[in-house]
# Entry
Amino acid sequence: MQATNILILILGLGCFAFYLGRGRSLALAKPLGGIRHIHSLPSYYGAHVALWCALPSLLLLGLWMIFDDPLINSIVLKSLATGGMVIDASSESLLLNKITNLADGVLPRKGEEPALVVAADLMLKLQEISRWSLTALMMTLTLMGFGWSWSRISSTFRARPQVEKVMEKLLLSCACVAIFTTLGIVLSVLFESIQFFRSVPIDDFVFGLDWSPQTAIREDQVGSSGSFGAVPLFVGTLLISAVAMCIAVPVGLMSAIYLAEYASKSVRSVAKPALEVLAGIPTVVYGFFAALTVAPFLRDLGASFGLTVSSESALAAGGVMGVMIIPFISSLADDVITAVPQSMRDGSLAMGATKSETVRNVIIPAALPGIVGGIMLAVSRAIGETMIVVMAAGMAAKLTANPLESVTTVTVQIVTLLTGDQEFDSPKTLAAFALGLMLFVVTLMLNIFALQIVKKYREQYD
Amino acid sequence: MNAINPVMGAKAEVKQNLEVADNQVTVGSCFTEAPKMTMRNVNVFYDDKQAIHNVSVDIAKNEVIAMIGPSGCGKSTFLRSLNRMNDTVESCRVEGEICMDGENLYAPKLDVVELRARVGMVFQKPNPFPKSIYDNVAYGPKIHGLADTRVDLDEIVENSLRKASLWEEVKERLHQSGTGLSGGQQQRLCIARAIAVSPEVILMDEPCSALDPIATAKIEELIEELSQNFTIAIVTHSMQQAARVSHRTAYFHLGRLIEVNPTEQVFTMPEHELTEAYITGRFG
# Structure
């Protein structure tokens, strides 16, 4: 039987077991005078039986699916080796691929080496055995689990705490999925980066001032030795982020103050969703808005003042990115400003302070830690933002602090390094992982910093 | 005005009848000579719900007037309309005439900021700003420009803290956070903050309800001292407190002002049967 079918069958059996278990506890409760006389609610008995029914065999299914293929593969390879075929590590996966394709009928069997055809047949047979033994084992486990938990049902059996315990484990395993995914991403980036740092010294990368990742593919190519100094990229990223924050922080903060303190209910009910629509616009749309509308406008505006503005200026990309971040800051700041107790406002107003004096002298200082936390989160968003800068910022890695010039960012370079056909063992491609790792470390530190501040804020008013 | 009610005789009826008539007239001595504030036919509404019905009363200069009554009777609402703190509640509407020194507080050209500097307020829960003790007290003088130099400001802060009898306890740590003080100290800090702008009237909205008995006793002592220089209107749930600190007591019931009389009289010989029922603890 296919794994999917088994899965559906087991889940169906679980549901069935639930009703059986529940029914049995109800039957037990009846002569005792109602469900208040048994230890747990009938649904807990049902859940207990269902869990015992389904969980062990599902666990087995999971383990089986992990170890099934490698085991079969190694048996097949071993049989090939005993058949006298020479197998080295590099041809192993190629060979296995071929056998699998033969077994699945993707490749025609005619004209293939007979040894491989035999191996393919062996593989098919093994897979068959594996499937049937899995089915048999799972059915046995299910029935055993059912029998065991069924026999335990009695009026004094404590089904509720047992089910609670399983629920806790279930929630924990869900939380683990997120954690392990993060860990996996970090590790994969880390390993690729380590490979990169084997060919490029780490201090050249972290402190190098020159970025031109074109390496020679052929021996006779000239002028492309490749240098991997990440500093210009990070400076470009910081420049664009700084421009973005210069726009997002004041505008976002002030709109939050307006929404939280001044706006009447009706205005707020319109303005808040409208601001949040801004957050819903896909970044790629912001990207071509920046590239096609804002950048030429800034260039022409600069020309009329006699300034040379690059047509892919940091100002255009950063400005549009700032607009994108406005709702992020305004909604976070709105939350913390609303969280400042009304008694603070009353206290200040009763002293004869005006509304803006109250905001300036009492509300903002009281909400400051929360606001700073929000800004920090926004900064890490700006640093990690990709689409806008890919479309609107330049490609040239220039080390400059002038926002009118064209700069490039870490994310842009990662995208250009990894798009298209690439060889995955040259330093050029591996550099992308090193950049990703550094970016991750920077944003992680910012996030930790922000969370610390937010935490401190919470302590103040709880 | 029905002058002297046969209190004893009315007792039996009171249990059944705690409702008040729409044409209820306030009994007792509502009006004084040389009043600081005068309220005439004040009605307060939250949307369509009327919270205060036709209240007319005077507050004399340098007197302490206590407002008592069961929960939800509108005494806090009434207090908050005296310095227009109700403006912050969107649905709230005030009708009638509230005057201070003959000036209508609800006149369109009146400056609310100036009014609130003249009528200070202390709240139920101590609400010091999350600033230093010094900055808490200096807050009002700073926004109203009462001090030209740092020395002036220091003096105002010290005087206010002394008047609030907090100076001795905090003079060593003026620059520590005001929120680090105990509840009673925080409330006295709020009083110091209120008197730092030298208001003429201080409104107190259950200033001791969040405090322990010792802190309460200190605040009550303070109210008595303050009454030499300020006019004080205090809302309280504690009848003992009203009896201890106030000169006159006003009894509110379901949004109506039932009786205003000298405190001693209210607690010994109340004129109205509802007042009598409340102070003897038959409801409330």
